[in-house]
Write a structure and sequence with these properties.
Radius of gyration: 31 Å
Distance between the termini: 63 Å
Strand order of the largest sheet: 1-2-3-4-5-9-6
CATH topology of the largest domain: Aminopeptidase
Order of helices and strands: EHHEEEHEHEHEEEHHEEEHHHHHHHH
Helix content: 40-55%
Oligomer: single chain
Shape: elongated
CATH superfamily of the largest domain: Gcn5-related N-acetyltransferase (GNAT)
Number of helices: 15
Length: about 400
């Protein structure tokens, strides 16, 4: 879903506008001097609204309507929330007028509007035909109003954007994606002046509302494992924020839930590691039998990885011991009576794949390509060190085996 402003050919949406205001000449009185917005979903215009700016930092919601087949889906509520946030930067109060129809009045009250005043005989004096709702003729215009937060809370907005950036960076997102998300969220909540400086392990954000309020914050984010499911969820949330469908408080709550998303079940991760080991081993030249053995090695290896993660063992030890485990299992497989001979290199090449930091390595290259040299270099060094740790583990196990076996390799 997306909300956009219409500046030309507003009459094209007259059929929808007539659903809320049944007299065309009444709509024409305010349409040209007002702002028209449409909510589009799947290429179809589902909802429209018209807002007229008034004097003294006030505005009036003149018309809001949703297609009959799309009612009950929350489109009008999304639209109303969007325009309230949009006009909060320029207006203090929003008015809306409606007839004495209880369902509509309750809808506006749920959206934060309260009773303002009544214009007697408005419908009977301005409309040629009587207007009825649930069999009752409408005569008076009942006005409601809502106080808008005209001063943008820069601190609250930046904290929200920074939290989104932290979650993205922590879970393996690229630098440019983090920067784009922070800027999009700030702009969506009317914080137009935003400067960011993002490293692989830290975010610096400075923002102001264009008047006199400024706010700067720094967040350190230690390097950790990737979770692309969380990255996708934050991306989706940022798009909804940009569309005006999510308030600050709702976004904070959703970010909290996203940050707590669990990883896949342990058995699923173990099987995926095994599949990766077997498949990559075969692609890199291992025989079918060696690939099957690599599958088993990958599964056993990832049990160690999950155990180490549970007890917060350092990355260096995880990868060194992981290299030892792979090599020991591959050497053990050499002594088993298989129908066909197996080679140790095919099993080790496949077995190490769950430890290889492929995503971090690719992101490092992409950051460098985007001229984020510092972040790209840090990520590249981190990925290369993992390769070194794995090599140390494999080399240590092979060295011990050679020494114990008198230098003979089977």
């Amino acid at each position: 879903m997306k909300i956009r402003q219409i500046t030309r050919n507003k009459d094209e949406y007259m059929d929808l506008l007539l659903m809320a205001d049944p007299q065309e000449d009444m709509i024409e009185r305010y349409l040209d001097k007002s702002d028209l917005y449409v909510l589009v979903n799947g290429g179809d215009v589902c909802s429209v609204c018209v807002v007229e700016p008034l004097k003294n930092r006030k505005c009036e919601l003149k018309n809001i309507a949703t297609r009959t087949e799309d009612r009950g889906k929350g489109y009008a509520k999304y639209m109303l929330r969007y325009i309230c946030e949009r006009y909060s930067a320029t207006c203090d109060v929003m008015y809306v007028g409606t007839g004495n129809y209880k369902e509509i009045i309750r809808f506006y009250e749920r959206c934060g509007f309260i009773h303002s005043h009544i214009v007697a005989n408005f419908f009977s004096e301005n409309y040629r035909e009587p207007i009825y709702e649930d069999g009752v003729r409408l005569t008076d215009m009942i006005y409601l109003k809502k106080q808008l937060d005209s001063s943008v809370d820069v601190k609250k907005v930046v904290d929200l954007a920074l939290e989104a950036g932290r979650i993205l960076l922590k879970n393996g997102a690229e630098i440019f994606r983090v920067d784009e998300t922070i800027t999009r969220i700030c702009n969506s909540f009317h914080v137009e002046y935003v400067d960011t400086f993002i490293l692989s392990h830290a975010i610096f954000v400075s923002a102001e509302n264009g008047v006199e309020e400024a706010y700067t914050k720094v967040k350190q984010i230690p390097l950790s494992a990737s979770h692309l499911g969380i990255v996708a969820e934050v991306n989706e949330l940022s798009r909804e924020i940009a569309g005006g469908f999510v308030s600050i408080e709702e976004a904070k709550e959703r970010l909290r839930r996203i940050d707590q998303m669990p990883a896949k079940r342990s058995y699923f991760q173990v099987l995926a590691a095994g599949m990766g080991s077997g498949s990559f081993g075969y692609l890199l030249g291992a025989t079918a039998l060696e690939s099957v053995i690599a599958f088993g090695i990958g599964c056993i290896l990832y049990v160690w990885v999950l155990t180490a993660k549970k007890y917060n063992i350092s990355k260096m030890l995880v990868n060194i011991i992981g290299g030892v485990i792979i090599t020991v299992l591959a050497l053990a497989a050499l002594h088993l009576p298989f129908a066909a001979p197996v080679k140790i290199d095919g099993m080790i090449i496949g077995g190490i794949m769950p430890l290889v930091p492929g995503l971090a390595f690719v992101n490092a290259i992409r950051d460098i390509a985007d001229s984020d040299f510092l972040s790209g270099t840090v990520r590249m060094i981190d990925a290369l060190l993992v390769f070194v740790y794995i090599a140390v583990g494999v080399g240590f196990a092979l060295s011990v085996y050679n020494n114990m076996g008198g230098g003979l390799m089977l």
